[in-house]
Amino acid sequence: MFRYTRFEKARIIGARALQIAMGAPVLINVPEGVSPLDAAIVEFEKGIIPITVIRPS
Question: Which of 2, 4, 29, 34 could form a disulfide with 8 if both were Cys (CB 3.0 to 4.6 A apart)?
């Protein structure tokens, strides 16, 4: 099973929250008024964020 480090997780959630704040569509149904950060966290937990991590081999 693939696990992200805490730094990768922070970077992915932060980048996705910025995308949502700048107007990107949210990929899940969230209530009106939810912050971009909260929406990004829920997307990360569900595993649907369209961001990949490439690690050197």
Answer: 4
